[in-house]
Amino acid sequence: MGLSEPKNYEQHAGKAFSRQSSVFDSVYSNNPIIIYKRQRVRDHVNSYLKDHSTILELNAGTGEDAVYFAQNGHTVHATDISAAMLERLDQKVRTNGLMDQISTEQCSFNNLNDLKDKGPYDMIFSNFAGLNCTGDLKTVLGSFDLLLKKNGIVTLVVMPSFSIWELLFAFQGKFKTAFRRLNSKNGVKAHVEGVYFTCWYYNPSYIINALKKDFVLLDIEGLCTIVPPSSFEHFSEKRPRLFAFLKNWESRLKSSLPWKYIGDYYIISLRKK
Prior knowledge:
The protein has 273 residues and is an alpha/beta fold. It has eleven helices and nine strands.
């Protein structure tokens, strides 16, 4: 199945984020909690990247991470199903003079076998739950081995099937939101810019089991476990001292039980054998 015939659920997600591409950066770039999340992810990735690494980025969006890693000496092949997102990314590449460090390709992560540039790469990276937009994550993960060098790293940021913060919505009477992850076996409807699509939630054990033949687990960190997720609008502005306090404790407990499993996201890294 080629890019012209993506699975319906991913096609709908691509349409939703294409609509959001023109406002994506203005909506998210200045949000303190999202800035915190990006820094946490980048710190985690940097702990595994060697100098001048090659990175295959999935669901690269408007290229915030691609530009960051390129400006820090790495080479990034940024992929996304949304042509509109890649247009924004290409604008940033030209503006920042990164044509030699960043290449782009419109490609579904469900069709990585169709990639024109197959590497192999030092790292495969996917941020902020892009992979939650597929109901066939096992097949996606199965394509990683041939795209990575020996000892290459996979780092994924994924939403698990339980979030302590979402559960708190039950106290506001928002039971559908509070329990949606617990009832997500067949996918859950989400929407962006008026376009509905389906997403799924995957625990770390799913990824570990899918990759155990060829990869070893390096680390799992909870993200927005103690710090509230970005859906808690204006939390950081209204309560800056509490926000700083929560960030400090999340930093301490991010890799501990149960915190690494109950956040809005988790960051997981594995190394190819």
